[in-house]
């Protein structure tokens, strides 16, 4: 499988921050993603009160939706603006605290404690900081990660998953020679080799 000219493409953290600052957030969905609604039973697998992780969460509306169902939601995002907008747009009171293990990072958490969003690079997280998760909703993270960082990303995700975790992944299929990404094209064969 050919990923075309994307193999060496790099998007710097500053570019993502600029997208949030300028409102160029075409990747944000105002309504919940239909695939999460369609496959919610796969993610939950008959369980309630799960810890669900949102990698590169932005201000995903699904975080509140799952928290309202009684799940505990944890997300990570480099843009503090995105995280604060999430709380404001859903009228959720929150508090901020530094994360001692990560220089300059913050945790923004609802006062009820059911949604905790980490403002830092995803690669600064570890299970000793955020714990492990029963489910992961990866709507746009793997396809946003620089192709050269995919193995690092997947290795981290595996360390954050409980034994019986469910991982829902959304990718996009297109000719990578016609679009430089992101979102990046990740062929199914690569997904299988990354996750094993």
Automatic annotation (TrEMBL):
One Gene Ontology CC term in the entry: cytoplasm
Keyword field: Cytoplasm, Methyltransferase, S-adenosyl-L-methionine, Transferase
Transmembrane regions listed in the UniProt entry: none
UniProt: S-adenosyl-L-methionine binding residues: 16-27, 56, 77, 121-122, 139
Record has Methyltransferase as a keyword: yes
One GO term (biological process): methylation
Catalytic class of the enzyme: transferase
Enzyme Commission (EC) number: 2.1.1.67
Subcellular location(s) per record: Cytoplasm
InterPro entries to which the protein is assigned, alphabetical: SAM-dependent_MTases_sf (IPR029063), Thiopurine_S-MeTrfase (IPR025835), TPMT (IPR008854)
Recorded catalytic activity of this chain's protein: S-adenosyl-L-methionine + a thiopurine = S-adenosyl-L-homocysteine + a thiopurine S-methylether
Domain of life per record: Eukaryota
Entry keyword annotation includes Methyltransferase: yes
Entry-linked PROSITE patterns: SAM_MT_TPMT (PS51585)
Family statement: Belongs to the class I-like SAM-binding methyltransferase superfamily. TPMT family.
Protein name: thiopurine S-methyltransferase
Gene giving rise to this polypeptide: TPMT
